[in-house]
């Protein structure tokens, strides 16, 4: 009797409806595969080199210095020294006076900043425009808030002269983008520089988006975590600086990407109080508070960067220089074996075309799994090289639209990139030798 009544109780659904369709997560699967099989991991996006010494030293000072209060709670919406320096720094970048207490909020990484935005701004029935390919968490986060994601693709145009494609060749169709905006649209998510392509949106493209936002009274969630990782003299333009956009934009940033310390999980939002006040409500009713010592160390990192702004010793000047070199190495390695890279203008990701390697991976007719996903799994198991299938960055119905690409992360030590090159060269030789 006891077991029967227990069973009856357990048959009741335990899962909240808002979780429907959001349970699968590509990273859980691919991180495990990489941990089990990879010799060289260019999959998940994190540097395998250390953060700069000045940042580590700030952390150590905060940890073992005189101010033992740094081991205790600090202000819920951001440690005062951090929000103050972020207000100063972003005030300079945006060309406006920012109030540290109302225009800045610190979060547990950019990930929690995104979660706060969707929970605070999106209602049941609201539509949110997402540009494909996209950082995969946008879709489930919109759905968990009760919203409906509406997708619009970046469409590739092959360069005429047979040159390698650039991320700039992936563009929005203005008429298609405009057709997605309606009275139901609450927000658009913009991610420039874009993960996974590395696309840096041009002023023209941003103006197109901005004009549509203003025309339809739509908010912009601007994920700018790769703001400093821009190459070849390109400029990262902040959409919040365009006409009519400050009042409707939340800017999201990440110390993880900015200072090569993804494990610290310090992120922030910058925006008008009319939007941030609602983000604060979500924050105070969920996470409430972020690690004080990490915030203190990031504050000191920004203090240094403010003093060195634009100078050769600035980390924000040095890091992209080093990464551009790493990008070029990986581009060369991939191009040499015929795994055609799309040259990224920004971020530390690079997408490559695997069409020429198709014959290596056994075909599974009628498989539900996309080709790129099978390829990435086969590659890590058989070659020890981990990458992420591009289809992971598309919504369910569109996963087969561009399914012959994989994404590599090149924020890696020279030795790691060399080891990747060795694997690719050996693979190519095995393919060509009879
Ligand atoms: N946005 C984008 C586009 C990202 O690529 C990432 C990390 N991969 C995040 C947000 C999350 O950043 P964080 O680690 O600071 O939470």
Keywords:
434 residues; alpha/beta; 2 domains; 14 helices; binds 4'-deoxy-4'-aminopyridoxal-5'-phosphate
Short structural description:
GO terms for molecular function: cysteine-S-conjugate beta-lyase activity; glutamine-phenylpyruvate transaminase activity; kynurenine-oxoglutarate transaminase activity; pyridoxal phosphate binding. Keywords: Aminotransferase, Cytoplasm, Lyase, Pyridoxal phosphate, Transferase. With 434 residues, this protein is α/β, with parallel strands linked by helices.
N-end to C-end Cα span:
69 Å
The parts where pLDDT drops under 50 for at least 5 residues are none
Mean pLDDT: 95
- The helix-and-strand class reads alpha/beta
Overall domain count: 2
Instruction: Briefly note the CATH topology name of the largest domain.
Output: Aspartate Aminotransferase, domain 2
The strand line-up of the biggest sheet is 2-10-9-8-7-3-4
Helix share bin:
40-55%
Can you write the helix and strand succession as a string? Answer: HHEHHEHEHEEEHEHEEHEHHHEEHEEEH
Small-molecule components bound? 4'-deoxy-4'-aminopyridoxal-5'-phosphate
Q: Major sheet: size, sense and barrel closure?
A: 7 strands, mixed
State Rg: 22 Å
Task: State the name of the first-level CATH class of the largest domain.
Answer: Alpha Beta
Summarize the structure in words:
The protein has 2 domains: 25-50 and 314-429, Aspartate Aminotransferase, domain 1 (Alpha-Beta Complex); 53-308, Type I PLP-dependent aspartate aminotransferase-like (Major domain) (Aspartate Aminotransferase, domain 2). The strands form 4 sheets. Strands 2-10-9-8-7-3-4 form a 7-stranded mixed sheet, sandwiched between helices. Strands 11-12-15-14 form a 4-stranded antiparallel sheet, with helices on one face. Strands 1-13 form a two-stranded parallel sheet. It is globular, with a radius of gyration of 22 Å. Helices cover 41% and strands 15% of the residues. The protein has 14 helices and 15 strands. The chain has helices at 2-10, 26-37, 53-64, 80-94, 109-121, 138-144, 174-180, 203-216, 255-258, 273-284, 292-307, 315-337, 371-383, 414-432; strands at 40-41, 104-108, 127-132, 148-153, 155-156, 170-171, 185-191, 219-223, 249-254, 266-270, 340-342, 349-353, 385-386, 388-389, 405-409. The model has no long low-confidence stretch (mean pLDDT 95). The protein has 434 residues and is of the alpha/beta class. Helix 2 packs parallel to helix 13, helix 5 runs parallel beside helix 6 and helix 12 (315-337) packs parallel to helix 14 (414-432). 4'-deoxy-4'-aminopyridoxal-5'-phosphate binds at residues 45, 109-111, 135, 191, 195, 223, 225, 254, 256, 262, 267. Homodimer.
